[in-house]
Amino acid sequence: MQNIEPILPHIDSHRDDLIVLSDNVWGMPETLYAEYRSCAEHTAVLRAKGFRVTEALAGIPTAVLGEAGEGGPVIAILGEYDALPGLSQVANIAEPKELVSGGAGHGCGHNLLGSAALLAACALKDWLAETGTPGRVRYYGCPAEEGGAAKAFMVRDGCFDDVDAAISWHPGGMTQIFGAHSLANTRIDFTFTGRTSHAAASPHLGRSALDAVELMNVGVNYMREHMPSSARIHYAYLDAGGTAPNVVQGTAKVRYTVRATDLPGMLALIERVRKIAQGAALMTETTVRPQVISAVSNLLGNTPLEEAMQSVMDGLGGVEFDEADRAYAWQIQATLSADDIASSYQRAGIEPRVGEPLCDYVVPRDPRGGGIMGSTDVADVSWAVPTVQARVATVAIGTPGHTWQITAQGKAPAAHKGMTYAAQVMGATARMLFTDEVLLARARKDHRDRLERQPYVCPIPDDVKPPLQPRPAAE
User: Fold this and answer.
1) Among 88, 198, 225, 305, fewest CB within 10 Å belongs to which?
2) Measured on CA atoms in the order 424, 425, 430, 432, is the torsion positive or negative?
């Protein structure tokens, strides 16, 4: 505790303001690349707190950077604030109830993620000024983590070229190091073009794009037996060619997400999926045009940073919840299955515990990781600079990601406590990097050594641009 005490008073002095920010962002859920109001809220806080602000980072209007300090190393604190479609939910209840019919919701806790990151940056700004320590802290307000790969575009644009290390976190059911275990991920749209015709009078003149999509899906499903068990492939129809069954569908579009544990494995799977699409087009005498929408890498670990962050978390202990927090968590757990709860422990790499609504302890670090992996665009930052992340308990154990239950818990007192704890962890870890030259040098060497074994290749083709969304007319 002695090593991290200097940062804690600065966290406390900004805490209430940043909780207000978190709740405000929760109340204005915006999906990928449309986070105009959420970004404006973060930008306003950055200006109010005295940061030097750069807007429209990498040409993305909903990305923002705030910097404070002079000279020394540059430490980035990564924040997010995008929501998910279809997860609107009334707060602080334990039953599904939409706040806005069909609306978006913060079903992954990014309202907390961005606010805690900015809270850590505010505390570090004050500490740097108070102590005269050389160094710059940067808050990166990053949009479109949910499928938009904004950080990958930002890395490709050079936004992290002069950064020495990056720190982030993610809300969840457990408090632990966010291990470097994630899936590289590419989203590709396949647009098939055929020829329309009257399905009864002249079906022989038609060439069905919908048939091509369905044949592609069959081919990919057969491929699943012959790919690594850790890989994942998902698809969704974007355009089924219309609603009239008596018209041969002239166009159809399907979006595929291809995931693998590393970039080479993902790229190999993508080529196989492309060949299946070409085969489906050949069989139906249609044409197919693939278009990459976004892509992210797999996470690159950094042992010195992970060990440093673990020491901070062990020193702090777990998040301190009270009985009211536990009572609400019990209500949420009553809406979950036993498998949901067991999966949370499995992902953390620990044995299940009975009668435990919230995680109020720190899970020991396990370099092997555990459970099922997802994808994140923080991964591309981790290839650009040494990067470390925490998971922090903000929801009931077992709460699945991307659900109404997470949205419901996003403004609860337990979430605010977890958010504050996350800021303490990030702030204290960054402070170690500002004051311990040996730690920073070890982190850099670890990063260089990993890149020598496998150099970074941006998974997004050079000609692909972020799928930016227009500013709403009301704005």
Assistant:
1) 225
2) positive
Write the pLDDT tens digit of every residue in 62-111.
Answer: 999 999 999 999 999 999 999 999 999 999 999 999 999 999 999 999 99
Model pLDDT for residues 31-49, shown as the tens digit of each residue: 999 999 999 999 999 999 9
| pTM score, whole prediction | 0.94
Task: Tell me the backbone φ, ψ of residue 436, rounded to 5 degrees.
Answer: -115, 95
Give the integer Cα–Cα distance in Å for 386 and 5.
24
C-alpha to C-alpha distance for 206 and 203, rounded to whole angstroms: 5
Q: What is the DSSP string of 315-345?
A: HH-S----HHHHHHHHHHHTTS-HHHHHHHH
Cα–Cα dist 271/186, whole Å? 12
One-letter amino acid at 163 equals V
Which residue is listed with tokens 């055929």? 194
Are 154 and 58 in contact, with CB atoms under 8 Å apart? yes
φ, ψ at 243 (rounded to 5°): -115, 5
In angstroms, rounded to a whole number, what is the distance separating the alpha carbons of residues 51 and 48?
8
Distance of alpha carbon 12 from alpha carbon 15, whole angstroms: 5
